[in-house]
Design a protein that fits this description.
Helix content is 72%, strand content 0%. This is MFS transporter permease.
Length: 223
């Protein structure tokens, strides 16, 4: 038996890059027009968060919450768990995070701060823009359009979008709480994608997670 230190991360993967790509393609194909509706909703979420105001803030939080719940069920639980046992545990976490975002939308007082103010808020807006532009990575990587990963459909851009909105939460403790599950997923997904050789996607996730973390940390420093 080989010594434990001789193992590489790829030795623990239960699926190949092509199997993962085919899973995404089949999932997207099954959604039809919803794929493009979801892309529009991700952009709308970013606009709601950027414009601010009570109604826009609550709409952004509610959309992210619904997106997390839907992604947890439709992809993580129904598809990804069949090739990756970790997805079966991630799905309930996405449902929990989604419910928390919806609760914040319903009950938090003046939930989001302005995205037009300090550096931390602008950094957060960059995370939201990255999440909205995530589908373009398929074209950059030379993949067909059916391989695009859209927020509210796939977990990685959905988690990024959730991180961006969570970092705009006015109450620091609530912001950290809402960001915890999406941040944990982005770390896991970054390592998985790097192991699969998906460099563009893994670097984009790492950049988005880093910006969100910097935004959250800078708020605590400024306090």
């Amino acid at each position: 038996m080989s010594e434990w230190w001789t193992y590489r991360p790829s030795d623990f993967l239960l699926f190949s890059p092509r199997v993962y790509e085919r899973l995404i393609e089949s999932h997207n194909a099954s959604l039809g027009a919803w794929l493009w509706i979801a892309a529009a909703l991700s952009v709308a979420t970013g606009l709601c968060a950027w414009r601010g105001g009570d109604k826009g803030a609550r709409a952004a939080l509610a959309l992210v919450g619904a997106g997390l719940c839907w992604t947890g069920w439709s992809f993580l639980s129904a598809r990804y768990a069949s090739i990756n046992w970790a997805a079966g545990y991630a799905a309930p976490a996405f449902w929990l995070a989604g419910a928390a975002f919806v609760m914040a939308a319903a009950f938090a007082r003046r939930p989001l701060r302005s995205a037009r103010g300090d550096v931390a808020a602008i950094t957060t807006l960059l995370v939201i823009l990255i999440a909205s532009a995530y589908p373009l990575l398929a074209a950059v990587s030379g993949k067909p359009w059916i391989s695009v990963e859209v927020a509210f459909v796939m977990p990685d851009p959905t988690a990024l979008l959730a991180l961006g909105v969570a970092a705009l939460i006015r109450a620091p403790v609530l912001a950290l709480g809402l960001a915890s599950i999406p941040f944990a997923w982005t770390l896991y997904a970054t390592m998985t994608l790097a192991t699969l050789g998906a460099t563009a996607q893994s670097m984009t996730l790492a950049l988005g997670a880093g910006l969100a973390l910097a935004s959250l940390a800078s708020r605590r420093v400024m306090r």
